[in-house]
Design goal:
Chain lengths: 199, 712
C-alpha cells in the first residue's frame, strides 16, 4: 500500500462519522458562512442596492418657514388641486435675485442658487422625495384634506431628509408602497381598483 | 487539519442559510418585480412648474377651444376649454393629438430636396427658396397651387400669391389656385345656385327637432364638436338620420331611416311633397321665385310612390318626418362622408328649408356672411378632382410647378391613383408640410411648416355653424424643427419674384385681419352665446382689445339676422340633376364611405393618439374592414372574416369582411382616413372611388360609387 493510500485511509471516518478535528472545522466554517450570509442579507444588500442622492441645493425648509414663507409659495397646486410641479426658477429669483456674500452654510447655498441657476435662468433639478413610479397616477386633489405629512416627510421635523434610491427598482425611500395606499384607501372606503391608481 | 472541500461546502451552506434567513432574496424579488412594472419606455412625469395656456385648436376643423398643459416649455396634455363658447370643454381627436403630434415620427426636420439619385436630402432654407424662386420664375403662368379645405388667412394669402401668376386657372390653363374638396364648398355653390350668398349654417341650438338628410352632423362635419355638445343636451327632441350606415350621427338621433347613398335628394324632395300636401308651406313661400315650378316638379316626380320606389322608405315614415319639419325641425343636407355628394342633395335639402320658411329664422338655416375675404371665392371654378383627372388623362396641360399647401392630395383625393398620376406629370412639385405625407414623398422640394401650438394662425367659421366665427391659434412652444411658417415663406417668395405683398410678416397679416373684424359688427362670445342672440337676446358690445382676447383663446362671433333676398328652390337645376342615372350592374354593391374625426379627415392621416383606438371592426393590420350586413354577404357569397378584393371603376383594395347589421342592404361600409401612409393601419378607401360628373353642374361626385367584391 502506498503512502498516499495510507493517508487517505486514515482520514476516512469510521462508522460514517468525521474525525473530531474535521467536524469542528466544518461547524466553524458553516457558522462563519451563516454569519456572513446574514450580514450580507441584512446589511450588505440594502447598501449595495441603494444610492444616496443629494439635492442640487441644500434647501432648508425651516429657514424659509421661519421667514413666514408659506408652503404654497413654492409648492403649487393646479386649479383642480393637482400637483403643479416644482417651483420655476422665477419663483426662487423673486427673493434670491442677488448673492448674499454671507459665510454661513445656508448663505453659501443661497449664493450657489443665485450664481448657478438664477443668473443662468436655469431650472433647478430638484429631486422629488416621494417620487412615485411612472406607472402610478397620483392625483393630489382628493388627498389634500389629509395634509401633506400623511404621505410626504414632515418637514417641520426633518429639514434635510435623507434621500436614497434603489438601484434595481428606482424606488426611493420616501416612495409610498402600494400596501400603504391600499390600507388608507380601505380605511377611507375609497376605490382599490387597479385603474384607480395605475395605468 | 486543512481547508478542503467539506469546509468549503460548510461555508457555502452557512452562507446560503444566512441569506435565506435574511430578507435579501425577498427584497431582490420585490425590486425586480418593481423594475418590471416600470419599464424604461414608460413616459416619465415631467419636472418643473406646470403651466396652462388657452388657445384655439388649429388641427381640428371644428376649431374648439383648448387648454394646453405644459412643463418647461413642453406641451404635455391638450384638454378642452370649458370657457370656450363653441366646444364648452369638448374636444375632438385631432385637437387632442396636437401635443403628441409635435413628436410625430414622420415630422420633417428641415427643408428637403430631391437629389440626382431620386432621394430626398437636407438642404438649407436659402438654397431651397432660391431653387423655388428660380422654378417659379421659369414657370410663368403654369403654377398650380392646392390649398386645404378650411378657411383662413393663410388660404387668402395663397390665393393672393397665386393671383400674381395671372389667370392660369382658366379653361385649358395649367395654373391656378385649387382647394381640397369639402362639403362647405358644395353648400356655398348650392346656395349661390339658389340666389343666395355666403355659407349655410344650421341653428341646432334653437331647433326643436332635427332631420339629417345624410349629413354627418355629429362626426365628420366641421361644426360637429359644437353640434354634439348641443344635441347631447336635447335627447328628448325629435331627430332622425337618413343614411346607409348607423354611425355616430345616427347614434345621437332617435331614429335611423336607412337610405341608400346618392338618394338624399329624393328624400328631401319627397318630404317637400308631403309638406305641400299637408299645406304647411312657410308663410313667405309666396316670395319664392320658382315656387310653382318646384311644386310641379315634386308633384310630378317625387310623390310617395315614386320616392318609395327609389328609396324603399314607406310614405308613412316620410309623412311623419315631414310633419316634424312643418313643426320646426331643422333639415340638414349633406353626405355621410362629408364629401362627394354633388350639388343636388344640397340644393334639395336647402329647398326644403326654404319651402318650410326656415331660412334666417331661429332654429333654421342661416346664411352666414364672411368674417373677411374667403379664399374659396378666389379658387378656380374647376374643382381639384376634375382638374387632376384631366391632367392624369392628358386632357389638360400639367403644371410646371405644383405647390401643395399643407394638403395631401395623393392620399386624400377621390380616385387616388389618378391623383398620383396627375401629380407625377407636374414639372416640379413642392410641399409645404410638417409631416412627410404621401404627397410630400413625391415632391422635389419639401418645406417644413411649424405644427399647431408652434405657430400663429387663424380659423374661420367651421362649416355648419349658424353664425360667423373667428379664432386665433398662437404659438405656445418653440418649433421642434427647422420650420418656417408657410405664410412667411409665401411673403418671402413674393418679394423674391419682384412683386412684394404689403405685409411684412404673416403675423402682421393676422393683426390687420383682426383690426378689420373690430368694426364689423361682431363680439367676443362670453356670457351671451351667439345662438342666444339668434333667438332674440341683445348682442353684447364689441371687445375693446380684440387681438388680446383672441390670442388668449377667446372666440369672435357675429350672429346675423339680416333679411336675405328670397331664395329660389333650384327647381330648374333639380329637374335635370335628379334624372335617373344608369347603374353599372357589373358592380353590385354601393360603397358607403364613412368619415370620422377619430381616424382623421382624408388627407390628414390618423391622429397619433387615435392609433391605439382603431377597432378590430375598422382595420386589422394593413387591411381595412369592409362592413356589410348578413343579407348583403349572402348575396355576394362571403362570410365573416373572409379576405376579399374590392374593385371600383379605377382602383382596387383588399379588405376583411365583418358582418354588421348597422349597414343597410346592398352597401359595403369602409372607413376613410386609414392607410394614408406606409405603416398606418388599414387601406385607403379613396382608391376605390371614381368621380362622375353631376348632370348640369358638372361637379365631380363620388359619394355613391359602385364596387364589386370577390373572395380571395
Amino acid at each position: 500500500m502506498s503512502v498516499t493510500h495510507e493517508r487517505a485511509a486514515s482520514e476516512i471516518p469510521s462508522g460514517g462519522r468525521f474525525r473530531r478535528g474535521s467536524r469542528e472545522l466544518w461547524a466553524l466554517c458553516a457558522a462563519l458562512g451563516l454569519i456572513a450570509g446574514l450580514a450580507a442579507g441584512w446589511l450588505g444588500y440594502p447598501r449595495l442596492t441603494s444610492v444616496v442622492l443629494t439635492q442640487p441645493i441644500r434647501f432648508s425648509h425651516s429657514a424659509h418657514a421661519k421667514q413666514d414663507v408659506a408652503c404654497r409659495t413654492c409648492h403649487f397646486e393646479g386649479p383642480d388641486g393637482t400637483f403643479n410641479g416644482f417651483p420655476d426658477i422665477g419663483v426662487c429669483a423673486s427673493c434670491h435675485a442677488e448673492p448674499t456674500g454671507g459665510r454661513s452654510e445656508d448663505e453659501k447655498e443661497a449664493d450657489k442658487l443665485v450664481v448657478e441657476y438664477v443668473r443662468g435662468k436655469k431650472a433647478v433639478p430638484w429631486l422629488s422625495l416621494a417620487r412615485q413610479p411612472d406607472h402610478v397616477l397620483f392625483d393630489h386633489g382628493p388627498h389634500l384634506r389629509f395634509g401633506c405629512p400623511a404621505c410626504h416627510p414632515d418637514m417641520s421635523h426633518q429639514d434635510y431628509p435623507e434621500l436614497r434610491q434603489n438601484r434595481v427598482s428606482g424606488y426611493r425611500n420616501w416612495t409610498m408602497s402600494m400596501e400603504r395606499c391600499q390600507t388608507c384607501h380601505r380605511q377611507q372606503s375609497a376605490s382599490v381598483d387597479c385603474v384607480s391608481c395605475h395605468r | 487539519m486543512g481547508f478542503g472541500r467539506r469546509e468549503f461546502l460548510g461555508i457555502s451552506a452557512g452562507l446560503a442559510a444566512g441569506l435565506a434567513l435574511s430578507p435579501a432574496s425577498w427584497r431582490l424579488a420585490r425590486d425586480l418585480t418593481r423594475q418590471s412594472q416600470d419599464p424604461p419606455w414608460l413616459a416619465s412625469l415631467p419636472k418643473g412648474q406646470l403651466l396652462e395656456a388657452t388657445t384655439t385648436s388649429l388641427a381640428c376643423p371644428g376649431a374648439p377651444g383648448i387648454t394646453v398643459l405644459a412643463a418647461q416649455g413642453r406641451p404635455l396634455i391638450v384638454r378642452g376649454n370649458p370657457e370656450h363658447p363653441l366646444s364648452r370643454g369638448a374636444l375632438s381627436p385631432a385637437a387632442q393629438a396636437e401635443a403628441y403630434s409635435l413628436y410625430h415620427p414622420r415630422r420633417v426636420a428641415g427643408p428637403l430636396k430631391r437629389n440626382a439619385a431620386g432621394a430626398l436630402e437636407p438642404v438649407s432654407w436659402a438654397a431651397a427658396l432660391e431653387l423655388l424662386t428660380e422654378r417659379l420664375k421659369a414657370a410663368g403662368g403654369g403654377v398650380l397651387a392646392v390649398g386645404p379645405a378650411r378657411e383662413g388667412t393663410l388660404q387668402n394669402l395663397l390665393a393672393e400669391f397665386m393671383a400674381g401668376f395671372g389667370d392660369g386657372g382658366g379653361p385649358g390653363g395649367s395654373g391656378g389656385y385649387l382647394r381640397m374638396p369639402c362639403e362647405a364648398d358644395t353648400a356655398r355653390a348650392a346656395l349661390a345656385l339658389m340666389g343666395g350668398a355666403g355659407q349655410p349654417g344650421y341653428d341646432l341650438d334653437n331647433a326643436p327637432g332635427l332631420v339629417l338628410l345624410g349629413a354627418d352632423a355629429f362626426d365628420s362635419m366641421p361644426a360637429s364638436v359644437h353640434f354634439r355638445k348641443t344635441w347631447g343636451q336635447k335627447a328628448q327632441e325629435f331627430s332622425c338620420f337618413f343614411g346607409p350606415v348607423h354611425g355616430a350621427s345616427a347614434a345621437l338621433c332617435q331614429e335611423w331611416l336607412p337610405l341608400a347613398s346618392g338618394r338624399e335628394s329624393h328624400v328631401a324632395l319627397g318630404l317637400a311633397w308631403h309638406l305641400a300636401d299637408l299645406g304647411r308651406l312657410g308663410g313667405d313661400a309666396a316670395r319664392i321665385p320658382d315656387l310653382r315650378e318646384f311644386l310641379a316638379l315634386v308633384r310630378q316626380r317625387f310623390g310617395p310612390a315614386e320616392v318609395e320606389r327609389e328609396t324603399g322608405l314607406p310614405p308613412q315614415a316620410l309623412r311623419l318626418v315631414a310633419m316634424q319639419v312643418a313643426q320646426g325641425a331643422l333639415a340638414v343636407p349633406g353626405s355621410p362622408a362629408g364629401q362627394g355628394a354633388g350639388l343636388a342633395p344640397m340644393v334639395a335639402g336647402l329647398a326644403l328649408s326654404v319651402l318650410a320658411g326656415r331660412v334666417n329664422r331661429s332654429g333654421g338655416v342661416y346664411l352666414t356672411g364672411e368674417a373677411g375675404e374667403r379664399a374659396a371665392t378666389r379658387a378656380s371654378v374647376v374643382g381639384l378632382p376634375e382638374r387632376f383627372k384631366e391632367i392624369a388623362l392628358g386632357l389638360a396641360q400639367a403644371p410646371e410647378v405644383l405647390l401643395l399647401m399643407e394638403t395631401d392630395p395623393a392620399a386624400g383625393l377621390p380616385c387616388t391613383d389618378l391623383a398620383v398620376r396627375a401629380m407625377k406629370k407636374a414639372g416640379f412639385r413642392v410641399a409645404f408640410t410638417s409631416v412627410l405625407n404621401a404627397s410630400a414623398k413625391m415632391c422635389d422640394l419639401v418645406l417644413p411648416a411649424p405644427m399647431p401650438l408652434e405657430r400663429w394662425d387663424d380659423v374661420e367659421t367651421p362649416y355648419g355653424l349658424a353664425f360667423s366665427t373667428y379664432g386665433l391659434a398662437r404659438p405656445l412652444v418653440r418649433a421642434g424643427a427647422d420650420a418656417r411658417h408657410p405664410g412667411d415663406v409665401l411673403l418671402d417668395l413674393s418679394a423674391r419674384l419682384g412683386r412684394p405683398l404689403k405685409y411684412s410678416s404673416f403675423r402682421q397679416m393676422l393683426r390687420e385681419r383682426v383690426a378689420l373684424l373690430e368694426g364689423s359688427g361682431g363680439y367676443v362670445a362670453g356670457r351671451v352665446a351667439p345662438w342666444q342672440v339668434l333667438a332674440g337676446a341683445p348682442q353684447p358690445a364689441p371687445e375693446a382689445d380684440l387681438w388680446k382676447a383672441l390670442s388668449e383663446g377667446a372666440l369672435w362671433v357675429r350672429p346675423e339676422q339680416a333679411p336675405v333676398p328670397a331664395l329660389s328652390c333650384g327647381a330648374a337645376f333639380l329637374a335635370k340633376a335628379t334624372a335617373p342615372a344608369a347603374i353599372d350592374l357589373s358592380l353590385p354593391l354601393t360603397l358607403a364611405l364613412q368619415s370620422t374625426q377619430r381616424t382623421g379627415v382624408p388627407g390628414m392621416g390618423v391622429p397619433l393618439q387615435s392609433l391605439t383606438a382603431i377597432r378590430k371592426d375598422e382595420a386589422r393590420g394593413a387591411l381595412s374592414v369592409a362592413r356589410m350586413n348578413g343579407a348583403t354577404a349572402r348575396l355576394v357569397r362571403v362570410r365573416q372574416g373572409d379576405t376579399v378584393r374590392l374593385a371600383g371603376p379605377s382602383g382596387r383594395m383588399e379588405a376583411l369582411v365583418d358582418l354588421d347589421e348597422s349597414v343597410m342592404d346592398g352597401h359595403v361600409a369602409l372607413l376613410l382616413g386609414l392607410g394614408q401612409c406606409e405603416g398606418e393601419p388599414g387601406g385607403n378607401a379613396q382608391r376605390l372611388t371614381a368621380t362622375t360628373p353631376e348632370p348640369v353642374s358638372g361637379r365631380s361626385t363620388w359619394a355613391a360609387c359602385r364596387v364589386s367584391l370577390e373572395r380571395i
